[in-house]
Structures are given as C-alpha cells and as structure tokens.
Amino acid sequence: MIKVLVVDSHPIVRNGLELVFKEHSDIDVVGTVGSGVDIFEFVRRHPVDVIISEIDLPELNGITALRAIKKEHSNINIIMFSYHPEEIYAISTIKAGASGYVSKKEPIEVIEKAIIRASKGDLYLSEKMSKHLKYDDTKKSRSRIYKRLSTREVEVLKLLSSGKKNKEIAQELGINEKTVSTYKARLFKKLNVTNLIDLVNQGKHMDLT
C-alpha cells in the first residue's frame, strides 16, 4: 500500500481525497493536515510514502515546506496539487524537488496516476508541461556546451553564424585564415557536428550575445 499524507487548508479537499481513496487497493490516505508546519510533526511520527500538498498553506507555504521535507526525508515523494496554473508553477515546483504537479481541475484519475508514479520514484507532469520541461533541459544542455567554448571560438562561431567567410573572419579578428580553420575544426568537435550548415544552426540556437 502507498501511504499518502494529504496537506490542504480546506477540510473539504482533505476529506474528499480521503473518501476517494478509502477503498483503493493500492493507495491508503494515512492522514491529513491543514498547514505546512503540521507536515513535519506528522512525518516524524508516521511512515509516509507520498505527500499531496497545496502550494497556498497557512504558516508555511507548500514550496518552502517541500524543500525542507526533502532535506529531512529524501525518501518521501511530494506531489503539488493546486489550483494555480501549471504553466506558472509546475516547472518551478519540480525544480524545487516535487515529484509531480497536478491541477485541481484534473479528474481524480490523474491524481491517482501521479501518486502511483511518485511512489515508484518517477515524475508526473501533464503532457504539455513534460514537453516544456524537455525543451528547458535542451536549452540548459546547449548552455553547458556553450560554456565549454573559448572566447575566440565563440567569436568565430558568431561570425560564421552571421554568414561570414573564413577570409572575412580572419580580417575582422586580425588572425590568418589557417587559424580560423583551426577554430572551425575545434567547433566541429566540441559541438559534435560534421558540416558547416549544422555548425551554423548550432550557433543560431545558442545565446551568442
């Protein structure tokens, strides 16, 4: 059985989730609390696998509580369950350590799916937010690659991306064409491309400001 703690300032939400999962074969709501502060006392006294928590809580908001709980109890997975728009809060709560974000507008089947995923250590996000997260990770990956380039390599990449030829780049940077070719070869290797078109495309996708 997945032991679940429900955290919400509204009794109707807490009682509603208790009733929904009362006869569930895999999910057991072992308790409910109404504030962020009360979470800590509960998890110290009772075993919990998954916490379902609202963001807006009295005394201590859900995101602050999330970070603190994950520091003390890294084995507990937390799902943020809120009326706030997911496009504003979902990614930030995942980055803070949540295992999922479910809008209160979703049907009960979605929170059930999120609980089961979280209990296995997996992440739950809506399809739309999953795509957004992958896009964000891709941007981070590009940023990490970009940081590996030297200042001169970045300058050469900028000029190549703007359509400049080797001779023009050499003149602008005050170096010879052979040196420009050397920098291009390094860029091919570091950016894992094999032709100029792909190299220029990589440059255009990076923030070369």
In short:
This protein has ten helices and five strands, in the order βαβαβαβαβαααααα.
Key traits:
209 residues, five-stranded parallel beta sheet, alpha/beta, Arc Repressor Mutant, subunit A, Rossmann fold
Q: What does this molecule look like?
A:
The model has no long low-confidence stretch (mean pLDDT about 85). This protein has a 5-stranded parallel beta sheet, with helices on both faces. It starts with a strand and ends with a helix. Helix 7 (about 150-160) crosses helix 9 (about 175-190) and helix 7 (about 150-160) packs across helix 10 (about 195-205). It has helices at about 10-20, 35-45, 60-70, 85-95, 110-120, 125-145, 150-160, 165-175, 175-190, 195-205; strands at about 1-5, 25-35, 50-55, 75-80, 100-105. By secondary structure, it is of the alpha/beta class. Helix content is about 55%, strand content about 15%. The protein has 10 helices and 5 strands. The chain folds into 2 domains: about 1-130, 3-Layer(aba) Sandwich (Rossmann fold), CATH 3.40.50; about 140-205, Arc Repressor Mutant, subunit A, CATH 1.10.10.10.
* Uncertain stretches of 5 or more adjacent residues: none
User: Pairing-aware structural class of the strands and helices?
Assistant: alpha/beta
Query: What is the fourth-level CATH superfamily of the largest domain?
Result: Response regulator
Query: Strand order of the main beta sheet, please?
Result: 2-1-3-4-5
Which percent bin holds the helix content? 55-70%
Text of the CATH class of the largest domain: Alpha Beta
Please give the count of helices: 10
Give me the count of strands.
Answer: 5
Instruction: Compute the average pLDDT.
Output: 86
Q: Rg from C-alpha positions?
A: 25 Å
Shape: elongated
- Portion of residues in beta strands equals 5-15%
Largest sheet: 5 strands, parallel
How far do the termini sit from each other? 53 Å
Known CATH architecture of the largest domain: 3-Layer(aba) Sandwich
Look up the CATH topology of the largest domain.
Answer: Rossmann fold
The H-and-E topology, N to C, reads as EHEHEHEHEHHHHHH
Count of discrete structural domains: 2
